[in-house]
Design goal:
The chain has 14 helices and 21 strands. The protein is of the alpha/beta class. Strand 19 and strand 20 form a beta hairpin. Helix 7 (about 180-195) runs parallel beside helix 12 (about 355-370). The longest helix has 18 residues, at about 10-25.
Length: about 500
């Protein structure tokens, strides 16, 4: 956030909202009556930005479905789906640093917007830069939806993820909303589960605080982010910690095993949830039953699918891809049960076509009651399906130009691609920025390519201790980061320590 056209501020919020409104009015006949859902989190200026956006929409004659208090992000796509709205926006920067904010847009299908719609909206914004309003309207006719939508959301959560007839979970756990919006929603979730007495809240991080004073970065993946939760759990003699990021669309887990806190990776939680959903399926499993994951996530789910007879579809990273692919598969008559990516995002399409940290927590707590120890359950899955290890890291990039320079340097090492990474031979090279895949007969990737994002994946030969490595390096879509994802496959060889 800050002054200028390259920052989020009142002017750019107005310009963006004007462009979005004009695009919707020109592309959807019922935009004015279908309306736009507007929500916001607890970050600096989030409510003000949301009010400005709502004022723009109303000035264009568009109905506004309004969340009158802070909400977790999944409630916006949930309302878009429930209200059959033309679109939805959420003012949030998720787990980014305190100085950031964002403007997240969902289409009429309840999914995050994707290409080519995103570029069309950008073009409309550029054609509507002159602000037509500068202040909030005093006679707003917004329709408040918090109470009714929240009730419907938790009713559906009960029906789809936690049926009434199941025994109430008994597991005790510590929870942190990481200074964000999650606490109220988690309290509703544990009430749904009948386990209000089982939750202990990290007091120092319980209330929304846009400065995130107890953490360097409000991201459960970051080192040290869960230290207060661990201390609280140790004090209460609790061995399970659950966390959401500030807008509660991501979900993190840690368990104390042999007196050591083990934080689960996104892949590990994703595999556990996917397997729990698979094992809970009624009737015959078929290839029409789908689970989704991404090109940088573990390949363990695909191996389980080959063994058990369901299907897995890989997408590009991000829930704009996972959500839209789920929707497309459903329109083809397939059943999509679940989708996840390694960055702590878990999607239950029956609820929303986006990641949902509260729904994930409900599912995980229910599963824990039958697993006992989630860490022990994970080890049993490794024993049955093979050992998979993922190593994720990132580097902060000072600029887009520096990121581009790095990827240009990698591509310049050898043509058409490097033949070795360290001592390992490259078996396959896929560059989704340049639209190249060495394993395809025409060298055209089976995943969408885009020159606006940087992503290279290479498959490396195995060694005496593993069956091979798939290594990805990519630019983050939401932060100034260069990420490396290396799922190392070690299948039925020896236990990883």
């Amino acid at each position: 956030m800050g002054a200028g056209f390259a920052r989020l501020n009142a002017l750019t919020i107005i310009q963006t909202s004007q462009g979005l409104a004009e695009y919707l009015l020109s592309s959807l006949e019922n935009t004015a009556t279908a309306g736009i859902v507007v929500g916001y989190d607890a970050r600096h200026h989030s409510k003000h930005f949301a009010e400005l956006a709502a004022t723009v929409f109303e000035s264009k004659g568009i109905k506004v479905w309004w969340y009158e208090e802070i909400v977790h992000t999944p409630l916006v796509p949930f309302a878009v789906k429930a209200m059959k709205a033309a679109a939805g926006i959420m003012i949030t920067a998720s787990h980014n640093p305190a100085e950031d904010n964002g403007y997240k847009v969902y289409g009429s299908n309840g999914c995050q917007i994707n290409s080519p719609e995103d570029s069309r909206i950008v073009a409309s914004i550029m054609q509507n830069l002159e602000p037509l309003i500068w202040s909030l309207q005093g006679d707003s006719k917004r329709t408040s939806i918090l109470k009714s939508t929240s009730s419907n959301y938790f009713s559906l959560l009960r029906k789809q993820i936690y049926p009434v007839e199941r025994q109430r979970p008994k597991v005790h756990f510590v929870y942190t909303p990481m200074h964000g919006v999650g606490l109220r929603h988690m309290e509703s979730a544990v009430e749904l589960l009948g386990m209000k007495e089982k939750i202990t809240i990290v007091a120092q991080q319980a209330e929304p605080n846009p400065d995130f004073p107890t953490v360097k970065y409000p991201n459960p993946e970051e080192k040290g982010a869960l230290d207060l939760a661990f201390a609280t759990a140790d004090d209460k003699n609790v061995t399970l910690v659950l966390a959401n990021d500030p807008d509660a669309d991501r979900f993190a887990v840690a368990e104390k095993v042999d007196n050591v806190w083990r934080q689960f990776t996104g892949d590990q939680v994703g595999i556990l949830l996917a397997y729990w959903l698979f094992s809970s399926m009624s009737g015959t499993v078929s290839p029409d039953d789908y689970f989704l994951t991404t090109a940088v996530s573990s390949q363990m789910l695909s191996h389980i699918a080959e063994t058990e007879g369901f299907s897995v579809r890989e997408t590009l990273t991000g829930f704009k891809w996972l959500g839209n692919v789920a929707k497309d598969l459903e329109e083809q008559g397939k059943k999509v049960h679940f989708g996840y990516e390694e960055a702590l995002g878990y999607m239950f399409p029956e609820i929303v076509y986006d990641k949902d940290g509260i729904a994930a927590a409900v599912a995980f707590l229910d599963a824990c009651d039958s697993w006992g120890s989630p860490w022990a359950k994970l080890q049993s899955l490794y024993e049955e399906y093979g050992y998979y290890q993922t190593v994720n890291t990132y580097w902060r990039s000072p600029s887009i130009n520096r990121t581009l320079l790095l990827f240009t340097s990698i591509r310049g090492i050898q043509q058409p691609f490097p033949k070795h990474v360290s001592s390992r031979k490259v078996l396959r090279w896929r560059d989704l920025t340049m639209g190249y895949d060495s394993a395809r007969s025409n060298n055209v990737p089976d995943l969408p390519s885009s020159t606006s994002s940087q992503m290279i994946t290479c498959w490396l030969e195995g060694s005496s201790s593993d069956d091979g490595v798939r290594l990805t390096i990519r630019g983050s879509g939401t932060e100034s980061k260069i990420k490396s994802n290396s799922p190392k496959i070690q299948m039925r060889i020896r236990k990883l320590t």
